[in-house]
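Folding Task

Wanted — backbone structure
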Amino acid sequence: MGPTRDRNSTGPTRDQIIIVAVLLAGATLVVLNQTLLSPAFPSIMAAVHVDATTVQWLTSAYSLVEAIVIPLSAFLLGRFPTRRLFIFGMSLFAIGSLCAALAPVFGVILLGRILQAGATGIVMPMVFTVILLVFPREKRGSAMGIVSLVIGFAPAVGPSISGLLVDFIGWRALFALVFILAVIIVAAAIWKLESYGMFEPTSFDKPSVALCSLGLLALLYGLATISSTDNVLASVALIVVGVILLTFFIRRQLKLEVPLLKVTVLKSKRYAIAVGVVAMLQAALVGTGVLLPIYLQNLLGISALGTGLIMLPGAVLGAAMGFFAGRMFDKVGPRRVIIPGAAIAAVGGCGLVGFSLDTPVIFIILIYGCLGVGMQALITPLNTWGLNSLDNSVIQHANALQNTTNQVGASLGTAILVSLSATSTFLFPEMPVLEQTMAGDRIAFLFTAAIMVIILILVTIVVREKDDKSAKSAAQELDAMRLPTKADDHVSVDLAMNQNPYFVHDTDSIREVAQILAANKTSGVPVVDEKKRVVGFISDGDIMKYIGRSDAAILDGTMMLYRVPDSENFMERIAELIDMNVMRIATQNVISVESGTELDKACSLLSEKRIKKVPVVDKDGILIGSISRSDIIRSTMANLSSIEALAAGEVPTAEMVKA
């Protein structure tokens, strides 16, 4: 089951930082690969003799295949170590890149993209899942900001690199570059990468896999072909069939004891809202990303390199905004970041409608910059806001579901925008070709503007600062955690406690408990019921004590009273133990301290009872933290300057007080 509970707030270790660095390198490359290709579309169209509706399959098919693979990511994480999975995914990505670089016809380029997409569907959910679990919940905004900055760097430089290579070498150089970088990352992973954690196994339910894969295939294929087919009814029928199959898939997941994908995460209102809004953003972002280079090159006559340079400032500013938005999320909360971001994105979306055949380049740069900054100011905080509402035990499922909906949104956005841009041929048949194409693009850009305005209205209504607790309880919590400002002030356990403790549920098995203890290197965890009330405590000592009772000879020094069981019987007992419910052997008379208890009393309790850690509960017995000897020492050292000031009869300054 692995690291499925909240982590300590001490931050990642050096080994974990290396893991994150290697994983981010792979994620950056696959994102770079996506942004590299858009400016090369006109060159590919000319080289292999295809039109705009055909070349967009390099984006649509990519999204389609990736979307089919992503729902399997939770199963793959539970089945294979992350190191092996990452190396396999990046190796597959390298093979696809080489295939596309050497492709003689469009079909082979498409095959290479399909292989790349399969690899991306494996790598990306794993990267985000591991990073979310490495960093503690209260630092996830900053962590996701760093991820946005690193991965955002790829789309920032991608179009410029693409334009340079296409203009001076050719479009094949794009895939050759990606192949070389992929090989380097695979080598680094083999050398340095270690597996992180153990994830809860999910069932490989064949009907679920069939329903999900066929449903997504029908839905996304229908969306991708509806803009170019002569038989629109066939595409509509595929979309309907896809929706029906996915509906059956969802119903099956709700009935399975161990589902392939835990769609129940959507019961969290915050997470569901975040998923929906980010999918809409992906629709606008990817669709506009496909259409804008074609507008710049085919209508304004700008080169591929010029296209990349025009899109560069918006991408750079967007990447920087993703970083700062994450940090601001941790400091000021979601609303003060998300609402301004949505407003800026709405300005950028509306500005697209003003594009024409003689639009100044500086105006295009400004508008695309607004769009990039606004979207990144939305995506990073929204993702963090939604995922923070979930337990760590379902993070891999949440990431799989969110990435799948993003791919559906991307395909839907591309299909709609390309289809809308083609409507001008029958809406304005008498217009000259350039004016007619421009009119179609303006209709498509109007759709992007509408999405941005809808998102602004939606997040203004639904995103609130006080989703989880009232202002009064928040103020009480902050007051409980404050440092004393005079020598006779009492210090609460809330100051030193770990606010994100590991825990297990009273329905878990010993197998799950043992995996959590081993993965997180802790000796014991509280047991909670469905309302998160503490109902027990399970430690490695309890497990050893049970085994010791089963094999009584181990406890008898004379070896006279008991026989030593043979290895087969011992293994049978172990097998029986690991599937046993945790409450069978957990300590049920739990020693705990209540929030607000003086820290010195907690110290006395730990000393007198000779224990290392106790749960911290509220007045209703609900788990809100844990306090251990190491927590107290760590908090004391972190606030040493304030303690020294108090000892000297001074009032600690704000700079001395460390949260």
